[in-house]
Amino acid sequence: MNGVQIVGALNVTPDSFYDGGKFLSVDAAVERAGQMLADGADIVEIGGQSSLNAELVSGDEERRRVIPVLAALRKTHPSATFSIDTMTSAVAEEGIKNGAAMINDVSAGRRDPRLFSVAADGGAQLVLMYSKDIPPTDKSDHSYDDVVGHIKIFLSERVEAAIKAGVAREKIIIDPGLGFFVSSDPKYSFEIIRRLGEFTSLGFPVFLSPSRKSFLAGSEKLPPADRLPGTIAASAMAVMNGATYIRTHDVKEVKRGCEVVESAQVKSE
Question: Cα 223 from chain centroid?
């Protein structure tokens, strides 16, 4: 694919909602990342803090989980691109020193404002995501009069703050959020995907992570393990509506679904 970038989600946590505890050791994490790259991931994103957990781990614990994995991956896959999923400036800073080219901050700089200057100094790409609360642990049915309008205002304000802190405009990526980051009511997540093109008007690449999220559970209340078909469909719809980055646990399957959409969008000669 030339357009959409597939971001493989590698969670080195004991409590992530889908794959928590599977990749706690450095060897297991490196093996998983290698499989993602073989399956076609453009970026592998390493996260050491579960948003499912109401208790945020310390910066030291997050570094202990993430940095050895990143350091090992830089040795085993020196030409690959890696991202750090963190709200903590110290983790972001050490991640950049160990080769991370992207920082994905689900708090958009609200938990640790220094993260902006760290990203700016390190020249890393910076993903700014909408979340209705920080830390993002409230799973209530939050309501909106206009969810897209509300999130656009939020992202515009966070972009302005990042640029003011020194982040280059061309390094910024926006993520409107999905699932309980927005609301436990699934209608808002579907509306975001349906109206995703409205976010591209802000002038930044759009990053989205539908992967196995709760809004895909449907009337059957499917567990995360059974949400792959919905993940592929939601990811493909997001690409159709303008997403540049799709973050997923299922690289091979989601990449193929996105390739079909991109092939269908190519105009005939």
Answer: 20
Domains contained in the chain, number: 1
Task: Let me know the angle formed at the C-alpha of 121 by 81 and 80, rounded to the nearest 5 degrees.
Answer: 5
User: Of the residues 152, 213, 227, 255, which is catalytic?
Assistant: 213
- What torsion do the CA atoms of 65, 69, 71, 73 make, to the nearest 10 degrees? -160
Which residue range(s) make up the domain with 57? 5-265
* 247 part of the active site: yes
pLDDT tens for 39-83 read 999 999 999 887 765 567 788 889 999 999 999 999 999 999 999
CA angle 6, 223, 180 (to 5 degrees): 65
- Between CA 257 and CA 261 the distance in angstroms is 7
* 22 given a catalytic annotation: no
- Say which CATH number the domain at 17 has: 3.20.20.20
How many other C-beta atoms lie within 10 A of the C-beta of residue 142? 16
Instruction: Answer whether 183's CB lies under 8 Å from 142's CB.
Output: yes
Tell me whether strands 43-47 and 172-175 are parallel, antiparallel or unpaired.
unpaired
